Amino acid sequence: MADEEKTPAREVITDYAQAHFRYFRTADGTVYAQRNGHPVARPIRSQGTTGSHRQELMVGLFRDGCGVFNGTALKEALDLIEALALTEDVQPVHIRVAPGYDGATWLDLGRADGQSVRIHPAGWEITTPDPREVCWRRTQLTGELPLPARDTDGKGIDLLLRLCNFAGAETECLAIAWLIGCLGPSVPVPAPFLTGPQGAGKSTGGRMLVRIIEGMSGDLRRAPKDEENLVAAVAAGWVTALDNLSHMTPDLSDAMCCIVTGAENVKRALFTDGDVFRARYRRPMLLTGIDVGVIRPDLAERLLPLRLERPKVRRTEAELWAEYTEALPAILGSLLDLTVKVRAAEAETPTDLRMADFAHLCAQLDAATGFGALAAYRRSLDDLNDDVIEGDLLAQTVLQHADGIEAGEPQRMTSTEWLHCLSRLYSGENLRPLPKGWPTTGKVLSDRLKRLQPTLAARGVLIDSGRTREGRYLEMLRRPDRNPPEQQQAF
After folding, report:
1. How far apart are CA 71 and CA 77, in angstroms?
2. What is the per-residue pLDDT for 227?
3. Domains in the chain: boundaries
4. What's the average pLDDT block by block, 10 residues per block, for the chain (491 residues)?
5. How far apart are the first and last CA of the chain?
6. 155-385: what fold?
7. CA 49/CA 396 separation, integer angstroms
8. What is the pTM of this model?
């Protein structure tokens, strides 16, 4: 055949690619390739070590006898494919958990054959999802899960609770509620904070919880030093677990709040002048540590304290993890059984809690099992409010002032007047110096009180702001039913 009659290499590659792969784009414009009949999709520009589309295309061409092509031909073919894919329908890609048709949700088992778990109102099944229903994206953090066992009769949950050193039934039911929440792609769940004395097995317990969702390769990691690295780690997996926290900076606290309830990160796209890259994320988180110091009020509403106790009998790491690995299929199967049962339960949504979706999940868990998870969740939030107040001298001073005002009668002053009032109350007759971090202006005080509003409201003190002709004001109101914390009954 004459040279002019040969089909150009880029056309050979393009024809082969379109015959064996489906190409589509996501909402942010990234083009993905999905092998026909397989649910895993790869970005066509990926150069990652987990296997790029360029690599699988080269291997397919070689094995099917189409030849070996140079980089120029591959680049030209992929440029054309990317341009054509930008006209295709938009479809999202998911990591580990995804919504499906008819109210179903999917759990990616991380297997090479693409088998996943479909959780639907009538039960759950192991199957390969339709590529147009679910597209999985995998990274180095996507571990393989075992095939879940059937007909466990709840034994897997019992095995998990026996392996972990949770301090009491309340902590156990909250841990189960969190695991069920991790299987819901649209349910924001608070971040469990595993606490307890030294030697209580917090890191081991955290790994056990994470590996139910992320597989045996899932692990804890140190908190990144900046938000950009934290967002990168969050975007590459489903559950983000940070180990041995001893201090939480304001920036890290704010970043965690965004991760739990959802946010978007925008930065300049590489090798461009004006284009941007958008990253949306909302992920389950897990934290471990003995004490992180002062907890900010907005993060406290997004935490779930899980207390552990020191085990009475110590076991070797090898023995413990061998038993866990053997039990993991039963644990996962029991969790899926319970998830189906909980989702089918009818329960009212509590309207007074910040994480209303998780509170509703706790109510459904109670309706299905009678665990008392919602009451335990309320008590955990109450304990966190105490922690916030104990670590914030301004909150303590506001509550002290509220004890001296008439219940039901609002007290209104400007923010500067409130600053002088609270500063005098803190200093007292001995004129002790104001602590470091005390508000220095009325504006700073107003901002601090806005952040403390939920914590103070939980103690019966309502803070509001407004404006009159004379200017802006802050208003404090003590509810008639307010009692000191030690006199409040548990919810």
Report:
1. 10
2. 76
3. 7-85, 97-137, 155-385, 392-487
4. 64 92 88 91 73 85 88 89 87 93 94 94 93 90 93 92 91 96 91 90 93 92 80 86 83 85 68 61 87 77 92 89 96 97 93 91 95 94 89 93 89 94 91 90 93 90 90 90 47 28
5. 85
6. Rossmann fold (3.40.50)
7. 53
8. 0.87
Tokens of 45: 């520009």
